[in-house]
Amino acid sequence: MGNIHLKKVIYAGIIALAATLFVHNSEAKAAKDVTEHTSKEIYLQSLDVPDRIARFVFNAGLEFEYPEAVRGIYVTGPSAGGAKMAELTELVESTELNAMVIDVKEDHGNISFEPPEDSPYADIAEPYIDDPRKMLEELEKKGIYPIARVVVFKDSLLAEERPDLSFTKNGEVWKNSRNEAFVNPFKQEVWEYNLEIAKMAAEIGFQEIQFDYVRFPEGFENRDEELDYGEGEYAESKDNNIKKRVSAVTDFVEFARKDLSDYDVDVSVDIFGYAATIEESPGIGQNFSQISDNVDVISSMIYPSHWGPYFGIDKPDTEPYRIIDEYAQVENQILGELEDAPVSRPWLQDFEAPWLYSGSTFQYGKAEVEDQIRALQDNGIEEYLLWNATNNYTENVDYTP
What we know:
- The protein has helices spanning 8-12, 25-34, 77-81, 84-93, 132-142, 156-161, 188-204, 241-259, 288-292, 320-336, 366-377, and strands at 43-47, 55-59, 71-75, 99-105, 145-151, 168-169, 172-173, 208-212, 266-272, 297-301, 343-344, 347-349, 384-387.
- The chain is α/β, with parallel strands linked by helices.
- The strands form three sheets. It has a nine-stranded parallel beta sheet with strand order 11-10-9-8-5-4-3-13-12. Strands 1-2 form a two-stranded antiparallel ribbon.
- The N and C termini lie far apart (47 Å).
- Mean pLDDT is 89; it is low at 1-54.
């Protein structure tokens, strides 16, 4: 893997030309260089804003209608760029599903398509998707709503290339038990690096940017004193380490939404479900209310298998309706207290969890998937996403039970 020239990302930032009323010729040329990953020209449209000052918003030139209620599936880069895509497209077209969350920047740090050779992201490309614009044009024809998944702070590629943007121990990049490295949410350079990828996705035509792994590593409160890392501008804060982490994560989300405001996209964030049940997560830096205040859509990951004994339920994995119902009541109360609450669109489980069992694994099929959906509906939550890491979804599910 070649060098990742992060400093070039600053150059890429001039694609925010749509934010200004006048663009110098040199800037226009630079923006064109950055956006050559699509053969489509840039469209600018004038919009009315509250202060009545006309501004220009980037429009990728595709027409997608936001569904009455988004009901989507997760799609990996290899699936989106391979034969599997036809099967998944047929699933969505033939059912009440209507959306796909497609990996643009995946868990290891790669992007799923090939940008121009002079792009600072060329070295991290795994070009599973040969022509992302063509893919989106096909989804446009079929009325399938496209959401770009961008994994933010879990990024082994960037961490290994730039240890100064990561967490180190004894001079080596620290990795968790799954051999995964994270980059540092305190570093605004990391924010900008990910935002330029999000802008590429918006330029291609994705209608929403979904940020995942918007957090510090799990259990960070138990290792923050043993790891070496910089706190950037947060070093001067008098807050304790927990509050600093919450501030960094929340500030990133606010920064991302503002930085994407010149693009005609919604911003969503994936968040641990348990974050809604506590004031704030001590290690990972997620505060449910604060993040929700800065997004258009909040997607809590509430897979029954990922809860320990909670809400008085000993084995949540075996009681999908009950655990989702209990969670939804908590979330509704919190979002109801916000002045401008985002859309709730939780992630649901369409997979088994054999790691929970020493004997037979509790099976997830039609009934279990429908139970989760029904629990949301019974609490007035109509939108949801289904997760299966291999994109093998249960057959014959009623997606509006």
